[in-house]
Amino acid sequence: MKYIIGNQKNYLLNEDAKEFAKEYSKIKSKNKVIICPSFSYLPYFKKGIVGVQNVSSASDGPYTGELTSKQLSSQGIKYCIVGHSERRKKLKEKDSDINNKINELLKENIIPILCIGEDFNEKENKLTKTVLKKEIYGSLKKLSTDSVDKIIIAYEPIWAISDGTHPSAIPTNKEIEEIITFIKELIKKKFKINAKVLYGGSVNPNNVDELNKISVVDGYLIGGACKKISDFSSIIDKCE
Ligand code: PGA
Question: Cα 60 to chain center, whole Å?
């Protein structure tokens, strides 16, 4: 079973989101398909699994504009993306913030989808594994084995993330296999569990058949290619 998770970012406007939700309700798959729309569109999604793209790192108290994990849970949300590189880089989120968010989510039985990945300079300087290790240890600090066992990890090399319309260069299958194996071994050594690790970064209907050849990949986190239901469905079909 693969995870096929859509991260719609802030791409869609209201009418397109409504239309997407209507078509999403018709999707059938043997895999675990999860769409993470913008918060305000959640009520349009009546069927199928729905997650969100962010959560507050605070559990309670007044924080204007934030949504807490308790609020998400009260709306029946079961999955939440944390640590996306856009939030790390542009909104300056730190591993310690992400660690707080993961703790908050787990208290409410919401599954965190933890994103990790190196940028282009780090890759060029052969720092990929160092960066991933730092992000994993920082984000999962002091978590129990049971907690880590619930988390889904998404390896997203930042340089491979698309601009939403045009896919970027992506790693070779060999590179993805090497890095995902590294992440799994690291988690196994530290937490004694078999982590679920997805690949993300310019996954689209044209490259998913090739990516499906990598057996260590447990699924995909998809951005630009979940703007249109036709692209998202095509990826889902190719993973059946
Ligand atoms: P992309 O985005 O598929 O558009 O590269 C992936 C992500 O940012 O999660």
Answer: 25
